[in-house]
């Protein structure tokens, strides 16, 4: 019993065993979950969804060809599960339906891409887990 108590107390007070949430605003994100589901449903009804491709310069996100790129607004969030210090967000600025995420901002390994975008008053969401 003494060993178990020692173990439990040690795990709770020792900073070496810090237990961080995956994201800082976890509960806020949980409340927005239904909005995300609605946006993903909208994206599934598109003729063509966003596609990603790894190139020498980084990653290109290609938006649907049948919509006007100048009417697209939104943000791209790249989340690094292994280290939140490398997470970053960028505003969508397209060049001929493409958005380039430069290689210098990306490390090799796993990334979660989340593209929250709007077109003609309708919101869409694209999520993808990639290995860079």
In short:
The chain is α+β, with helices and mostly antiparallel strands and 132 residues long. Helices cover 23% and strands 36% of the residues. The chain has helices at 2-13, 26-31, 33-44, and strands spanning 51-55, 58-62, 72-79, 88-91, 98-102, 110-119, 122-131.
What does this protein structure show overall?
The chain has 132 residues and is an alpha+beta fold. 23% of the residues lie in helices and 36% in strands. The protein contains three helices and seven strands; from the N terminus they run αααβββββββ. The chain has helices at residues 2-13, 26-31, 33-44; strands at residues 51-55, 58-62, 72-79, 88-91, 98-102, 110-119, 122-131. A four-stranded antiparallel β-sheet has the order 4-3-6-7. Strands 1-2-5 form a three-stranded antiparallel β-sheet, with no helix packed on it. The longest helix is centred in the first third of the chain and has 12 residues, at 2-13. The termini are far apart.
């Amino acid at each position: 019993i003494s060993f178990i108590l020692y173990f439990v107390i040690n795990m709770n007070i020792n900073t070496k065993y810090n237990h961080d949430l995956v994201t800082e605003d976890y509960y806020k994100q949980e409340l927005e979950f239904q909005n995300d589901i609605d946006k993903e449903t909208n994206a599934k009804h598109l003729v063509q969804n966003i596609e990603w491709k790894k190139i020498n310069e980084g990653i290109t996100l290609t938006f649907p060809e049948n919509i006007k790129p100048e009417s697209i607004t939104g943000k791209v969030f790249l989340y690094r599960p292994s280290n939140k210090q490398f997470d970053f967000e960028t505003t969508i600025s397209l060049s001929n339906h493409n958005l380039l995420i430069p290689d210098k901002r990306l490390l090799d390994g796993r990334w979660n891409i989340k593209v929250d975008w709007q077109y003609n008053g309708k919101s869409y969401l694209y999520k993808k887990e990639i290995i860079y």
